[in-house]
């Protein structure tokens, strides 16, 4: 009974980091690729179906984030060359200072896992504190070992 109430409450609330009505062409392509990995009636693809080589032309703007439970933590598995010049691959998000276009990544990762659905973050150019070009970041959950264990991310600048 309590679980049903929580699920009903979630269905009525707007999740953080909602997808926009229209994604840019590159992000829409990554989202469509993710959707194309679905098996049968699954709500999200399995992580072992993911092949970054299928998106090779976007490799510089892709990232993979490992999801850990108890305690909940996130580790950058792979990061595209256009996303960070710092050595962040293999590091937990709480161990590194993340700057644009990876700012607020931990928060978005948490939201993606909690809602079990794609999320989107948009940073506008007028944000003086980051002094960076505007960008959008899409995170997509992947299932494996009975849980969400991997997030596929894509960033588009402009």
Which structural class do you get from the secondary structure elements? alpha+beta
Query: In what range is the share of β-strand residues?
Result: 25-35%
Number of helices: 3
Q: Please name the CATH topology.
A: Beta-Lactamase
The Rg value, from CA coordinates, equals 16 Å
Strand-helix topology:
Blueprint: H1 2-12, H2 25-36, E1 62-68, E2 73-79, H3 105-115, E3 119-123, E4 135-144, E5 147-157
Antiparallel strand pairs: 1-2, 1-5, 3-4, 4-5
Description:
The chain is of the alpha+beta class. It has a single domain (27-157), classed as 2-Layer Sandwich (Beta-Lactamase), CATH 3.30.450. It is 22% helix and 25% strand. It has a five-stranded antiparallel beta sheet with strand order 2-1-5-4-3. Strand 1 (62-68) and strand 2 (73-79) form a beta hairpin. Mean pLDDT is 89; it is low at 1-7.
Quick description:
This protein is α+β, with helices and mostly antiparallel strands and 158 residues long. It is 22% helix and 25% strand.
What attributes characterize this protein structure?
globular; five-stranded antiparallel β-sheet; 158 residues; 22% helix; Beta-Lactamase; disordered N terminus; alpha+beta
